[in-house]
Design brief:
By secondary structure, the chain is α+β, with helices and mostly antiparallel strands. The protein is built from two helices and six strands. The longest helix has 15 residues, at 63-77.
């Protein structure tokens, strides 16, 4: 989708997740695409957050607690990044999928 500045990426991701339909989500990757965070909205309204890179973990959170968790994950997975790649996931099967390199 796009490269977003690290300072505004948190607000951007939360806004996109609120607009997403169930079973859709967002993937945030480093510039080199070797670390990332994936967020999928479930049918019940919960969010499944998967971190991969430095740590491999998975959480189930609500939209209200997403901001706090994302702030922690962005500091851990993107410590030196200035810009973060954002991709929209249309189905849960898109998680972990290789994206086209430009």
């Amino acid at each position: 989708m796009a490269l977003i500045n690290k300072e505004t990426v948190l607000r951007h991701i939360v806004a996109l997740i609120k607009k997403a339909a169930p079973h859709q989500g967002i993937e945030a990757l480093t510039y080199k695409r070797n670390r990332g965070v994936e967020i999928i909205k479930t049918a019940s309204g919960e969010l499944v957050v998967r971190e991969w890179g430095y740590n491999e973990e998975c959480w189930s959170v609500t939209e209200e607690t997403l901001g706090k968790l994302l702030k922690t994950l962005l500091k851990r997975e993107f410590p030196r990044s200035r810009q973060i790649r954002i991709y929209q996931l249309n189905t849960p099967e898109d998680m972990g999928k290789q994206h086209q390199k430009i």
